[in-house]
Amino acid sequence: MILYHGSTVVVDYPKIIVPNRTLDFGMGFYTTANLTQAAAFADIVMKRRKQDVQYINIYDFDIDQALKTLSILKFKEPDEDWFDFVCKNRNGTYTGDKHDVAIGAVANDKVYATIGLFESGILSKKQAIESFKINPLYDQVVLKSNSALKLLVFRKAIDPREGTK
How far apart are CA 52 and CA 43, in angstroms? Predict the structure, then answer.
């Protein structure tokens, strides 16, 4: 399985680091199987950090070995379980099972707003989940343990504006 990670740096040795904000699937190394999404995220990070460089890091992930040896949490769609997991991770209250890998839809900026409306009581959970189906949602594959990272092999990094490094 090919995975991508958009950044302002080449990440040839991925690590799990403590994030500076709460994220959809908690702490982990965030990747996607969608090249377009990785490029968009690299651009967002570049602008956020006020830099002029961006990379799409490309990896091979041994999904067959992961399925045999790791604990994988997979959401097929943004349903109630996904919604609860994202909300708990976003507000720092997730205390459920630990997984090596989490796979599912990424909550884009519109989803942030929807979760806020749900948490303030303006939308019901059902209304919030239904609103996700209106907006395009991309995937994320989050490697949450060193065991998962061992199955990730760096191939190359490309600057989507220039080519291969």
Answer: 9
Angle formed at CA 79 by CA 74 and CA 84, multiple of 5 degrees? 85
Query: Cα–Cα distance between 165 and 158 in angstroms, integer?
Result: 6
pTM tops 0.85: yes
Q: What is the pLDDT along the chain (165 residues), one digit of tens a residue?
A: 999 999 999 999 999 988 777 888 999 999 999 998 899 889 988 998 999 999 999 999 999 999 999 999 999 988 899 989 988 998 889 999 999 999 998 876 677 788 888 889 999 988 888 877 656 668 899 999 999 999 999 999 999 877 555
CB-CB contact of 131 with 107 (8 Å)? no
Residue 105 pairs in a beta bridge with: 139
Asked if 6 contacts 40 with a C-beta cutoff of 8 angstroms, the reply is yes
Rounded Cα–Cα distance for residues 139 and 164 (Å): 24
Q: Show the tokens assigned to 143.
A: 């490697």
Query: Residue 10 carries which side chain, given as an amino acid letter?
Result: V
Tell me which residue of 156, 163, 117, 164 sits closest to 4, measured CA to CA. 156
